[in-house]
Structures are given as structure tokens and as C-alpha cells.
Amino acid sequence: MNIKLLGTVSIASLLVASCSKPTTSSQYTAQETKSDTGTEFICREGYDQTADKRLPTTYAFTGGQKRAIIRWSTEYFSGSDWDPKSRCDEVSPRFQTAYENGTLNFITNGTWNNQPAVCTALQDGGPCADLLITMRPSDDSRQFATELGEVLKGRSTGPMRHSSGNSQVYIQVDIEEFIRNAPVE
């Protein structure tokens, strides 16, 4: 398996990441439970402002707060009984396993069962240790891993979205901050 390591992800950064504020559905108002590690990765519905609807969302739940990581909207796998909710239910525990195994510190991309995938590694340059997400054949697993890393490092303004549609990308910039802080030549 040829894997290119994309970068270190600090779990401490995950816990302080400033993600979009999730809303709570009445069906999830019961007390959430945490794992022995103090953090639990869970699948719950969250409001997606872009789609203006609630979507299955993978969260890191810690200290009584949910921090959104991935909103699931792609119907690509629905033909094989993997709708967005099923994928969220499957992937969220994978994050938990990787977190508890100590492998969530390194995110990488590669191939898993002949499909593009995002997984974790035990060390810089190491092989896939824990599978996180299998991707559509047309997906760029390197780009997805990079975006996931940005979310987990707290460098994203909200959770990433695993969705169908074209590959057009939108990047939000603060031009005023650039003008104030960019090096002067």
C-alpha cells in the first residue's frame, strides 16, 4: 500500500478546535456518555447551514460539548445500504478506536480494499494503522485527508462535508488580516 503522510494532527488541538456550533435534536437530549478517555466520537444530527437541513454528523464529544468534524450528505453509497446516517454510524466509532489506540495523531491517505481511503498511522511515514473512511473511486483521498487535518487542527471554520456534487472548492480568506499581517517587501 502506497501511503503519503499528510501531517500531524494534535488531539489537544481537536479538543479546543473552534467548529460551527451544532444544534441538538430533541431525540438526543439525553445525557451523553463519555468513554474512559474523556472524549467520545459520536454520530448525531447537526444543522448544516449550507444545505439548510439537519445531517448526520461525526462529533468529538468532550466536557459536555460536541465539536463537529464531518457532516455526511453523500448518497453515493446508498445503493449498497450505506446512506449518510449508516456511514456516520460506522465511521464515528473508527475515530474512537483510533483515538484510544493513539493513532489519531497522524492522518494519512492510501488504499484500503482497493478503494481510496483516509486512515491513521502510528508515526510519521508509517503505514495505515486504523481505517477512518473509505472514499468513492472519484474522490481525492489526499485532499480529503488534508481537509480533515485542517478541521482537527482547528484551522477550519467548521466541519468538513462529505457530499456528492462537483469538485468545485471555495476558500474563505480574510483579506483585511492579510493586508495587516503579511510581510512587507
Would you give an account of this structure?
This protein is of the alpha+beta class and 185 residues long. It has one domain (4-181). It is 23% helix and 31% strand. The chain has four helices and eight strands; from the N terminus they run βαβββαβββαβα. The chain has helices at residues 11-16, 84-101, 141-152, 175-181; strands spanning 4-8, 39-48, 53-62, 65-72, 106-112, 115-121, 128-134, 160-162. The chain has a four-stranded antiparallel beta sheet. Strands 2-3-4-8 form a four-stranded mixed beta sheet, with helices on one face. A hairpin with a 6-residue loop joins strand 6 (115-121) and strand 7. The longest helix is centred in the middle third of the chain and has 18 residues, at 84-101. The protein is globular and about 40 Å long. The relative contact order is 0.19.
Radius of gyration: 17 Å
Structural class comes to alpha+beta
Terminal Cα separation, in Å? 45 Å
Can you count the beta strands? Answer: 8
Question: Domains counted in the coordinates: how many?
Answer: 1
Low-confidence stretches: 1-35, 164-176
**What general outline do the C-alpha atoms trace?**
globular
> Biggest sheet: strands side by side, in what order?
1-5-6-7
Compute the number of helices. Answer: 4
Overall pLDDT, averaged? 69
State which percent range the strand residues make up.
25-35%
Order of helices and strands: EHEEEHEEEHEH
- Could you give a short account of the major beta sheet? 4 strands, antiparallel
Helix content: 10-25%
